[in-house]
Amino acid sequence: xxxxAAVLGLLLLAGCWKPEPLPVAEGRYMVGEPYQLRNLWFYxxxxxxxxxxxxxxxxxxxxAGRRTSNGEVHDPAGLMAAHRTLQLxxxxxxxxxxxxxxxxxxxxxxxxxxxxxxxxxxxRSAELLGILPGRPAQVRVAVEGNLSRSLASALPAPEGSQxxxxxxxxxxxxRETLAPIAGARxxxxxxxxxxxxxxxxxxxxEQAAAPLVLPERVAQGPAMPGMLHxxxxxxxxxxxxxxxxxxxxxxxxxxxxxxRAPEFRVRIGPFVTPxxxxxxxxxxxxxGVSEARIIVD
Length: 297
Prior knowledge:
This protein has 297 residues and is of the alpha+beta class. The protein has helices at 4-16, 123-129, 145-154, 238-248, 274-286, and strands spanning 35-37, 40-42, 51-58, 80-82, 90-96, 101-109, 119-121, 137-143, 219-220, 228-235, 252-257, 262-271, 293-296. It has two domains: 35-220, RlpA-like domain (Barwin-like endoglucanases); 228-296, Alpha-Beta Plaits.
C-alpha cells in the first residue's frame, strides 16, 4: 500500500516537472564524407551545374518531425527531396518527363536508398508533379546554381564538412575514367558554394535570394518521356569498354566525345518499364559495376 506522504511527494514532483522543449532544428550547409548505403559507396561533392535524368521515388515518411541529414526537419507537406551526393541544402528543378510538370524543391537529405532512383521526393512534391507512391517516374533533375549558392552562403557549415575521399575504399580499375557518380563532378572544387554569388545577365538581385520555404509553383511544359537505360562506366579505351560490356552481357559500347578525345561508354537497354531497368541495374551492380545507374534517353 502506498503511503499518503509518498503520494503527496509524487504530486509535488509532478507539479514542478516541465517537459523539455524540443531542440530547434538549425539547418546547416554540408557536403559530407563518403558513406556506404546498401553496400555501395557514395562520394558527396558540391555541384552547382548538375543536370541528370533518372527515376524519381516518393519518400515513405508519413509524419513530419525527423531530422534530415543537414539538421533540418523533414516535412512531407513541404517541397523537399533527398539526393545521395549533392551539397545540402540545394535547390533543384525536377521535371516529370512523363507529363511535363516542373517544380523547384529543396534537397536537404541523403537518399534514396534504392540505387535505381536518382532522387526521392517528399509526398507533396511528388503530388504536385503527378508522381504516385510506388510508381517511379522519369525525371530530369537540374540544380538551380544561384539559388543553391545563396543557400550555401547563408548557412553555417560544420568544421570538417569537406569530404575526404581517401577514407573510403575504391575498386581497382585499369586506369580508366569512370562515369561520374550521380551528383559528382570531376572538378577539384570542394567548398565552391561559400564563395561569391555568380550573377547572370538577366538576373535581378531579388531573384538570387533562396527562400526558406519554396512556393508551390508548378510549370507546365511538353511531356518528353524517353527510354530507360542502365549506364555503366566510361573509358578512354574501347577495348576496356568492350571488356566491361562482355562481363555485363547484352551491353553495348557507344562512342562519345570528340575525335581528339574519344570516350567509350557502356550501356544496357533500352527498357520500357522501371521494373525491367531495375533488374538490369541489379545485375550490373552484382557484376561489380558500382557506378551503374538508370538514365532516361
